[in-house]
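My current task is to audit a protein record that another person submitted. Alongside the sequence sits a line of tokens, each denoting a local backbone shape. Please read both lines and tell me whether the tokens look consistent with the sequence. Do not assume that whoever made the record got everything right. Thanks in advance; the entry in question is below.
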Amino acid sequence: MSALPYEWQVGWRYLRGARRGGRRNRFVSFIAGVATLGIALGVAALIVVLSVMNGFQKEVRARMLDVIPHIELVASGGRALADAPRTMREALGVPGVVAAAPFVAAQVLAGRGERLRGVLLRGIDPAAAPQVTALAARLATGSPAPLAALRPGSHAILLGRVLAQQLGAAAGDGVALVLPSRAGDGEVLPRTVAFTVAGVFDAGHYEYDSTLALVNLADAAGLVGVDGATGIALRVADPLAAPALARTLAARLDGSFYVRDWTLSNRTWFEAVQLQKRMLGLILVLIVAVAAFNLVSTLVMTVTDKRADIAILRTLGASPHSVMGIFFVQGALAGVAGTLGGVALGLLVALNVGTLVPAIERGLGTQLLPASVYFIDRMPSEPLASDIVPIALASLALAFLATLYPSWRASRVEPAVELRGE
């Protein structure tokens, strides 16, 4: 410490030495401790919240991509594709596209007894679908494999876990699929087709577990009255590159269909998460700002208490700039301590959220993250340097800014006036 400039030495002494002395010094020490703790808690809260938001977004995205294709080529008007095999070959010729599978998608009602639920029915090719989605790949394994039951003409159906619970259906039970049918006179009447539950799957995502049902491609085509697949599902090497590849496919492929990537399929949800992250970040930054500007009151009280010391330093040759530096160092050190403490605390909590939240839930006897609302039932966390570094820099900038006015006031103390006791 002795090798440092005297501004640093005196500033450090004021910060550390405020703990000793009379009642006023102890009060100044308490205010300084509260300001430093406030910065630390604000920084920690900001890191934890953004880490949980990052983890939540990553977890939900991963579970979505387990179920839905990265890119879909969908025929317009719900019609069948004119030449699905040719379209698949052309799509696989685009660099970055690694797998393709035909599908039929339709919105129907599923009923059993008095229970009726809206269902997203998806007809798949049991041989090709496992190459496109992780859910189909899981269903293609095991003995017997659930996907193997989806044979053409079998009228077998696989239900999501929550959907099966809502219908009260299990493997071997019958369910009725209801969809509109146009009569000869143009009147629309409901049509009911019986299916047998061949198995229940768990996609790990509440939205799909509660609405998705899988049947054979041929059964789905016959059900909705089309001759062949209504769309092509694609898997790409890099899911984050799916939007760019979708634009490339739309420009290269010639067909009466539109191209939709996974970000468009869930655009509203991702935009809502980004908006929430920005707003929460702004609110917590304001909390850090309030804590940082508590340093103003600490330094103002310190300057008032040390006016005589400042006058003596000035008579010994200290310049106003040096006096300003002393109190700037005192406030800056408090800001650095609060920021570093907040980063350490925030990382400690963020990296152990998966352990802390279940303990809190057990202690309170409640569930903080119901799957029916948040899609997932555990609290994920992913601290990112791209969040932590700006948070630390913003906290330091606010703390340094808060020291400027008190430091400037200290540099304006008149030695002659103070030493005369006026």
